[in-house]
Structure of Lactonase family protein:
Amino acid sequence: MMKQYICIGTYTEDILFGTGECFKGKGKGLLLGIFEDGEIELCRIAQTINPSYLCINKVNKKIYAVNETKIFQGKRGGAVTQFSYNINGELLQEACFYTDGEDPCHIASSLDGKCLAIANFASGSLSVFELNEHGNITGKKNLFQHTGSGSHPIRQSGPHAHSAIFSPDGKFLYVPDLGIDCIKAYACTSGKIEPIPEADVHMPSGSGPRYGEFSRDGKHFYLINELSSQVTHFFYHNGKMIEKDSVCTLPDDFTGYNICSDLHLTPDGAFIYASNRGHDSIVCYRINANGELSFVQRISSGGKTPRNFCIDPTGAYLLTGNQDSDTVAIFLIQPNGLLKMCGTKYVESPVCIQIFTPGHCHQEL
């Protein structure tokens, strides 16, 4: 298998979660290394505060990292930090901008590469930054504030934007908001983002929508709901979502505390995986011809509190960042979708993992 880059974001400082728990981050910052044949070799560290989610720009060799804080350098809110990387794997911090929203927790680039969308969890807002032709953040931004609340007295006392997902055609942006049980809809036109309230998707009370992905043909959308521990399947066409069905991520006999965290499809679109925190497991479903999900497997995440996981671009491996046990668990994805654990790597407070091919870079890190 070809060498791939791996980038890991960690919690470096204490952070108060929406659950009321104060997590004591032990991480060192942004980690960059090589992933090859199921092995991780970490080679570089860039010190930055709580880089809890990452976005990779392979064309311009940029890494954008949110700084998940409620106060950043004396100002209320968090930030986004831009790094460049070169063929030697060297990391250089280039710029840093306030998001004007608290606890930014997710970041995504538009398909045309003209803007970055950042979900600010604690304040329930969306920050949209302009990118220039070189992939640099210009500093120009718009802030869209969500409003409302949900039925859960602690988790849904206000809006909590949790992710930003661009549609496959690049025309729409969807922002699942855990606090108001709603997927907020935005239109994308030439790098400009505008809300379209009439296209918002309202979820059942207490669902807590967190993150979603589109099927490879763009006809289906899958949403993981943090509070209800469900994956919801939608038919999708030109900005319209029709809810079809939901599956529970937990075994029928489970009675403990659980909140879901992440969801990803395999590159070939055959399987989808979701993660449980509390039950500490990864669940696999086969994606049927009509987009519906069939249960395949539920397996231990290989540690405690799997916050984020990723599937490598070849579809051969799934890597899970177990936040509370300081481990990245490495699973082999078998042809039938079953996961087989093949190793672990000690990483302090891992919260985001991205694996990407280095393109035309051939030198060693």
